[in-house]
Each structure stands twice: as structure tokens, then as C-alpha cells.
TrEMBL record:
DNA-binding region (UniProt annotation): 86-129
Domain TLC residue range list: 131-332
Record-given protein name: Ceramide synthase 5
Compositionally biased region (Polar residues): 362-387
Domain of life: Eukaryota
One GO term of the biological process aspect: ceramide biosynthetic process
Classification of source organism: Eukaryota, Metazoa, Chordata, Craniata, Vertebrata
Transmembrane intervals: 36-56, 140-160, 180-199, 263-283, 303-328
GO molecular function, one term: sphingosine N-acyltransferase activity
Reaction catalyzed: sphinganine + octadecanoyl-CoA = N-(octadecanoyl)-sphinganine + CoA + H(+)
Homeobox domain location: 84-128
Membrane topology: Multi-pass membrane protein
Length: 387
């Protein structure tokens, strides 16, 4: 273990040339540098945030949902059947024709009856609008509060106005209490998201979001240990700037305030494009790649940190393209037909059985009551937070 620890914390990887861990271990009185041990405090705080979230959803968000008349939908439960339940949980939730024919022979059921059972069973697990509203209200509240805290803190910081300050006297940069609380709170929140994934709505991209949260935690932890907190705080603030707007748009969508929902989505998209495609590459990447090279020079962990930021920028481009694609479809068709990113707000596609007469009636009503160019579909709002 000692050899493994020595290999992992190799000074030649983590620190600039001619700097050792011993140089950072014994600062002057009243001076504190970031230490890896500080990150452990994020774990109990994450449990505390998770507990606060449960209280918030039950005692604050749920009454708000009642005021807005957002009720829990009652779905028809599937008839208990051990054979079909085993197939549903162990093999597939949407059986193909081969499975359907085999089950039909085994149970002596009509194929349509089996299809109906699987449809009801999927919808049985589908979360209610009220549940989604409460989750989004919690995320909206946190994102808004942490963004306000971050922007107020950074407004008084030198590196907010001159990014070269991120690298002067590096790595001997003092850890202030405000910066510590900002970092540990963000880290704790993402740990709480990791925990809550196992109790939240089961989303289609569970694994993808799990990896996303893990990557976020790793990047925050890496920059903390490496004392790149100044530029790291800028990165966090940029990402927090649009997250609360997306959650606000979801809340408006669940409450059926469609025009407000459309407006918030447009504002979210504009801020997302500006922060991810303009500010991040021309402000953040400029200082991490060029200004830092000029002031402190490259070293192994510097290369890794910048590679991670470049990967993040690639994701920004992909997400921006998908958001623009949704908006373009909305303008051309008058509504959003499908969220190209991921349907992560529900565990199954919304399915209903319709007769030919009902389909004709639906088509007729669409002609009379169109969306008039608004983002009339709820699909765009079915997205992860967190970007």
C-alpha cells in the first residue's frame, strides 16, 4: 500500500518542477493550502444534502405542486403473472414478435393481450408528473442558490477579472474559506446525485449519468488536490449559469404554463450557447492552455487537466448541436417531436392504446388546436440535469 500510495502521489506528476509535497505541507501560520484529506468532508455533507432534499421535496415542493394542481396520475396496474413478470425483469421490457409468440403459446394468451400487459407494466413504473415536479424543484433551488453564491464570491475575486491571477504564485495560493465552501458544496451535491440515482426515477440513461457524475466528481477532486481551485471555480460557475433555467423550464412545463416554459427554454438555450461555445473556450481554455503555459509551464497533471477540459468542450459542442436541433424542429414543425439528447425523465415511453376512431379524433383536434409555433411538446424538458 505504501508503494502504491507513493506511486499515485508522485510529485513529478502532480506538481510543477522544483515543487514538492513537503513545500505545501507546512505553510505559514494562518495559511492553508488544499489537501486531499479535505475531500473526505464532502461525503457526510452529501448525506446531509440528500436528507435536506427529501425534506424539501416532501414539505416544500409537494405543497407547491398541490397549489399548482399537479396531481399524481393513477396508472392501471398489470394483472399479476409470474411468467410475464420474470420476462419483464430478467429479459426484456419490450418483447419482440418471437418472444410474444412464445409467451402466447406458453400462457395460451392472445398476442395483443400480452402486448397490453407489457404496456401496462411499463406504465406502472412510470413516474408521475408530481414526482418529476418535486425533483426538478429541488434541483432548481440548489442550482440557483449555488450560482448566486458562486457569482457573489467570484465577483470579489481578482481572477474573475484577470484570469492570469489563476497562475501567479501557483501552487502557493491560499485556500480561503469562501473558496473551500464553494468547492466542497459542489462536490457534495454531485456525491448526493450519485447516491440518489439509486432511489430516484429510473432513467433510460442511468449508466451514462452515473459515469457523468463520476467524471464530474473526479474533475472537481483533481483540480482541488492540484490547487487549481481558482480556474476550477470559474468552470463551475459557468456550468451553473444555465442549469437552473432548464429546471425552471421543466417546472413551467409540468405546471402547464406553456408560454413561460417556451420563454425559459429559449433563455436557457441562449445562455447555454454563450457560456459553452464562447466564454468557456475563449476565456477558460485560453487561460488553462496559454496563460498557464506562459506563467508556470506544462507538467504531467497540467496536460491531463487540459485534456479533460478539452473533452468537456467537445461535449459542449455535441450538446449545443442537439439543443439547436430540437429548437430547429420546433420552429419548422411547430412542436418538438423528440428530444434528441435522451428521454431521461421517464422510465418508459408514454404509451396508450388508441382505436382508429380515436386516432382520427386526435388528428382532427390537432388541426383545430395546434401549438401555434410554441414548444408544445414536453419532450425537450425530459433531460438531465445536469448538463
Amino acid at each position: 500500500m505504501a508503494a502504491l500510495s507513493a506511486w499515485f502521489w508522485n510529485e513529478r506528476f502532480w506538481l510543477p518542477h522544483n515543487v514538492t509535497w513537503a513545500d505545501l505541507a507546512d505553510p505559514a501560520p494562518g495559511v492553508e493550502y488544499p489537501k486531499a484529506g479535505h475531500l473526505l468532508s464532502a461525503l457526510p455533507l452529501a448525506l446531509g444534502i440528500f436528507a435536506v432534499r427529501i425534506f424539501f421535496e416532501r414539505c416544500i415542493a409537494s405543497p407547491c405542486a398541490s397549489i399548482l394542481q399537479i396531481q399524481t396520475e393513477l396508472s392501471r396496474r398489470a394483472q399479476p403473472n409470474a411468467v410475464l413478470e420474470k420476462v419483464f425483469t430478467s429479459i426484456t421490457k419490450s418483447p419482440d414478435s418471437r418472444h410474444l409468440e412464445g409467451l402466447s403459446k406458453q400462457l395460451d394468451w392472445d398476442v395483443r393481450k400480452i402486448q397490453r400487459w407489457f404496456r401496462q407494466r411499463r406504465n406502472q413504473d412510470k413516474p408521475s408528473t408530481r414526482t418529476k415536479f418535486c425533483e426538478s424543484m429541488w434541483r432548481f433551488t440548489f442550482y440557483l442558490c449555488i450560482f448566486i453564491y458562486g457569482i457573489r464570491f467570484l465577483w470579489q475575486s481578482l481572477w474573475m477579472w484577470d484570469t492570469r491571477q489563476c497562475w501567479y504564485n501557483y501552487p502557493y495560493q491560499v485556500l480561503t474559506s469562501g473558496l473551500y465552501y464553494y468547492y466542497i458544496t459542489e462536490l457534495s451535491f454531485y456525491w448526493s446525485l450519485m447516491f440518489s440515482q439509486f432511489t430516484d426515477i429510473k432513467r433510460k440513461d442511468f449508466l451514462i449519468m452515473f459515469v457523468h457524475h463520476l467524471a464530474t466528481i473526479s474533475l472537481i477532486s483533481f483540480s482541488y488536490v492540484n490547487n487549481m481551485l481558482r480556474v476550477g471555480s470559474l468552470v463551475m460557475c459557468i456550468h451553473d449559469s444555465s442549469d437552473f433555467l432548464l429546471e425552471a423550464a421543466k417546472l413551467a412545463n409540468y405546471a402547464k404554463y406553456q408560454r413561460l416554459c417556451d420563454f425559459l427554454f429559449v433563455v436557457f438555450g441562449m445562455i447555454f450557447f454563450v457560456t459553452r461555445l464562447v466564454i468557456f473556450p475563449f476565456w477558460i481554455l485560453n487561460t488553462t492552455l496559454f496563460e498557464s503555459w506562459e506563467i508556470i509551464g506544462p507538467y504531467p497533471s497540467w496536460w491531463l487537466f487540459n485534456c479533460l477540459l478539452l473533452v468537456l468542450q467537445l461535449l459542449h459542442i455535441i450538446w449545443s448541436y442537439l439543443i439547436a436541433r430540437i429548437a430547429f424542429k420546433a420552429i419548422m414543425r411547430g412542436k418538438v417531436s423528440k428530444d434528441d439528447r435522451s428521454d431521461i425523465e421517464s422510465s418508459s415511453e408514454e404509451e396508450t392504446e388508441t382505436t382508429p376512431r380515436e386516432r382520427l379524433k386526435t388528428a382532427s383536434s390537432r388541426g383545430e388546436n395546434g401549438s401555434n409555433g410554441h414548444f408544445g411538446s414536453k419532450s425537450w424538458s425530459q433531460n438531465h440535469n445536469n448538463w
